[in-house]
Design the sequence.
């Protein structure tokens, strides 16, 4: 859910990538699948639905990294906060999921959250709040 003031954009992958994630930004390695795909766990989404879709890294990508980028978000202020809540699953000890923030005046991506999955093979949820005085991507 991408929250900007009162508007809340729910992002699932039932028909395709949601509006927040560009199709062009889906790097090789990410696949849209569900629990019935025969690709191993997870066998359902975070709500226990085995036919609901989520994004997953393909098994060939286990040793390298792949990125998802959001669309450009507008600057935040006291009225327009940005909160992103997401569900995630980490299935191996070597995997790390990171969330980065790239402001439009900067070339670098600042790491604002990460989890290397000590509690594995279960869905977890996290909410991050973003403050930026300029346009940004996550």
Sequence:
């Amino acid at each position: 859910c991408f929250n900007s003031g009162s508007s809340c954009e729910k992002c699932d992958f039932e028909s395709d990538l949601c509006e927040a994630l560009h199709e062009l930004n889906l790097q090789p390695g990410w696949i849209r699948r569900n629990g019935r795909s025969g690709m191993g766990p997870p066998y359902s989404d975070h709500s226990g639905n085995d036919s609901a879709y989520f994004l997953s890294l393909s098994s060939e990508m286990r040793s390298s990294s792949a990125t998802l980028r959001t669309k450009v978000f507008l600057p935040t202020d006291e009225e327009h906060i940005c909160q992103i809540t997401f569900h995630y699953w980490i299935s191996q000890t070597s995997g790390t999921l990171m969330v980065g923030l790239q402001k439009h005046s900067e070339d670098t991506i600042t790491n604002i959250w990460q989890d290397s999955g000590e509690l594995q093979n279960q869905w977890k949820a996290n909410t991050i709040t973003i403050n930026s005085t300029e346009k940004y991507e996550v």
